[in-house]
Hints:
By secondary structure, the protein is an alpha+beta fold. Helices cover about 20% and strands about 30% of the residues. A hairpin with an 8-residue loop joins strand 2 (about 50-55) and strand 3 (about 65-70). The longest helix is centred in the N-terminal third of the chain and has 20 residues, at about 1-20.
Amino acid sequence: MTFAKAVAFFSLFLVASGAFAHHSFAMFDMTKTLTFKGVVVEYAWENPHTHVTVRVPPSEGATAGLWVVEGGAVNIMVRQGWSKTTYRIGDPITVIGHPMKDGSKAASLFYAVLPDGKRLYHDVARTNADGSSQAPSQ
């Protein structure tokens, strides 16, 4: 009986730890969309979320500065066509994302536009705050 209790406790621990591992996007204002163009200064292809750091030049006005753009987990990004070599330091990038609620220079990736015009989405299954679809329309 003791062994069965130990296995049950361990199983419960594994399930509970998975719930705590989820990272929320609640800090982003999903009702607003922001577009900015810049150059990739870092491309972090890692879990739990991928990140692209973008330097936006002063010529871009209010969006100028260093932005951290948060994408999805690696497996989500791969399903949308991303890879660990999609961007390299120095590559131009256009980002469409949802800004931080507190106004800091960070955004949740909606999609990025490659130099050839192709859009790479974070996750087409997400919905807007009003429940409408964010499915791509290329």
